[in-house]
Amino acid sequence: MTNPAATYFEDVAATGMTCPHPDAFEPDGVRVYYRVLKTNSVDSDCFLPTPLRADKPIPKDCDACVQKSVSIYDDLPGMINGYFRTPAGRGKKKHVGVLILQGYDGMLKRTFGPSHHSWWRSSVFDTTTVTIQEIQL
User: Fold this and answer.
1) pLDDT digits over 18-70, tens only?
2) What pTM does this model have?
3) Which of 61, 70, 94, 137 is the most exposed place for a label (fewest CB within 10 A)?
4) What are the residue ranges of helices labelled H in the chain?
5) Per residue in 27-57, is it b (16+ CB within 10 Å) or e — as a string?
6) In this predicted model, what pLDDT tens digit does every residue of 78-96 receive, in sequence order?
7) Within 13 Å and on the Cβ side, how many CA atoms surround 41?
8) Which helix (DSSP H) or strand (DSSP E) does residue 107 occupy?
């Protein structure tokens, strides 16, 4: 259930819709999530939504609200198969942010596949809680 009192890092009100979606849920503080990092350090820029590209098809169910979310995975092999084996992921250093999200860190919704989640990051999310793991493929 969406928390109407939450303040999100992205301007979700600009979507003109209920965002996060009503079926979004708070993280439980136990489940581990993973995010592809471009470098071996963590800062706020590591957790920005991925902009849509004109040369790529828009994924099914990707509305204005989902476009304001951050892609994370709850399964490391699922993330590896979903990202590192694509042309965009080949040949890059494989750094992964490991997150254990608390309820105040935002809202989640399973989207686009069994291990992928859209995460609406709260404005209080602390990047220093993220650890970095290097993946060897």
Assistant:
1) 999 999 999 999 999 999 888 888 999 999 998 777 777 777 788 999 999 99
2) 0.86
3) 137
4) 76-79
5) beeeeebbbbbeeeebeeebbebeeeeeeee
6) 888 776 666 665 666 678 9
7) 3
8) strand 106-110
